[in-house]
Amino acid sequence: MQLALRDITKRFGALVANDRISLTVEPGEIHCLLGENGAGKSTLMNVLYGLYTADEGEIVLDGVTQSFDGPGDAIAAGIGMVHQHFMLVPVFTVAENLMLGNETTGLGGTLDVDAARERVREISARFGFDIDPDAVVEDLPVGAQQRVEIIKALSRDAQVLVFDEPTAVLTPRETDELMGIMRQLREAGTAIVFITHKLREVREVADRITVIRLGKVVGEAEPTASNAELASLMVGRPVELTVQKQPPTLGDDALVVDGLTVTDVTGLVHVNDVSFTVRAGEIMAVAGVQGNGQTELTEAIVGLQDHVRGSILLDGRELVGRSVRQVLDAGVGFVPEDRQVDGLVGSFSIAENLMLDRSFSGPFTSRFGGLRRAVRDAFAREKLAEYDVRAPGIETRAGNLSGGNQQKVVVARELSRDLRLLVAAQPTRGVDVGSIEFIHHQIVATRDAGIPVLVVSTELDEVVALADRIMVLYRGRIVGIVPADTPRDVLGLMMTGERPAGAVA
């Protein structure tokens, strides 16, 4: 099925999110839609999927102009969408999620779950997904949940499939697997729209590339274009794609973790007798495949884990046993790996989110306990400008921002604290190249100010770029702590549990 979008315009008040955008996607083609956070990519696809109605323009499928009153109409026309934040019911099984909005019944009007199970097995076998139809979604890893989203779309015979930032929450291995799935779908004749801002992925799978900036198409490019050329088209200026930093000026041991063990309520060990030190003015980057204890490690430092043994000293003061508020008050800034669950309150405004955890004291509160709204709003406007958060204003709900702009709000809040330690988990997840450049610069500036930094990332490029030393975790244990110039193939082996000669345990 051929998809043509012609002069699509979508406004939100005075904001023109899409300004006369036109593009064509052929059957059996991967058409990449590349652009910064807030450029209008997701808005355009939400128009295609029937979630929004265009103010102007038309959607044409195989030469026939369409009119969608909602996603049901788009699905019936052969359009499927895999959203950046999955549209799944966590407590339902895979088969039950497949049936949502497309319920079939058997004898007596009962739901025909067996038919849904069989459909899951059929599609899983065709693409090698290995998905159990009776598995509960919340028990599946993120990569498997994404396959469930793809199965949902394919079960409804989608001939045009939209992937909206599909790799934002995936590990490198899961990303490679997804690239393989997309190629299979292309070979089967599916027209694919791939929304991303990750240049490596674009060059790896795209047949054609359309670049959007500030709601407008600013150019097309071939997959052979260099990263620098693509980045410049996206941002409208040259972008520094490598992290520029001087050798660190190291101070005393600032963060000292000794014998740290973290278990869950069932007694399962997630962090197993981990010990390491981060000095003032140093970036320690933690590498590893997602799910090897990184989340529990960072949450233990911040006070979010209940079952913790061992010691975490910051400037000689014990953090274990303290509440989250006490840890934050001790000068710890925390960028969580899941901005929607732990980083933001989606129903709060940007201004309210930027003062979270500080509303009870400090510059935003008067001596009588009331909110100093003018101070809060001035601070919010300053951070919106400084971090280039694309939003109509500071009263915009955080939940209405694109994923990358949500991340920038979290980073802006945490880096504006009076820091003694920065813990950043996946700091640039879902963020475009221009914003990555800025956030990396801010992290290095934090280190250069003499503050210890602990960065956790599944992006090996990010780990290597930022680190002064690299700690690799595997199944909750430290495989080794190695210099930042350690070859990538050695780091890759360490991520599978192998310890190279010379690595510090």
TrEMBL record:
According to the UniProt entry, the coiled-coil residues are: none
> CDD domains of this UniProt entry?
ABC_Carb_Monos_I, ABC_Carb_Monos_II
Q: Where is the ABC transporter domain?
A: 3-239, 255-500
Q: Which domain of life is it from?
A: Bacteria
Give UniProt keywords alphabetically.
Answer: ATP-binding, Nucleotide-binding
Offer an example of a GO molecular function term for this protein: ATP binding
What Pfam family is a match, any one? ABC_tran
**Bilayer-crossing regions:** none
**Entry's PANTHER family?**
CARBOHYDRATE TRANSPORT ATP-BINDING PROTEIN MG119-RELATED, GUANOSINE IMPORT ATP-BINDING PROTEIN NUPO
Which protein are we looking at?
A: ABC transporter ATP-binding protein
